[in-house]
Amino acid sequence: MAIGIDTSKWKPRKLNGTPAAKAINKISGCVLSVGLLIGAFYQYSSVTAKLRKALEPFYADPIEEVERKLMIASGLPNRSGDTIRKLLVEEARTDLPDK
Questions:
Q1: Which superkingdom heads the taxonomic lineage of this protein's source (predicted)?
Q2: Which residues form the domain of 81?
């Protein structure tokens, strides 16, 4: 080897410990922290209250889904909301012999 040439910086076989790895770590840290700051600003700022209110219907569950979740939580067998409504209508009928 020639005197004065640093061969330790030649073609690293791994990324760990190289300047590229340090740059990637800094970039990823910046991306994560900016995302965290934007999320915190969106969640806790009063400036975005109207936007959150406008987007709320997109995240709301339909009535059938809410009924299904309540039914599952109560321990009843899985039935769709339409099936439950049909059963309720049949129970309300007075012309059945068991009434």
A1: Eukaryota
A2: 61-94
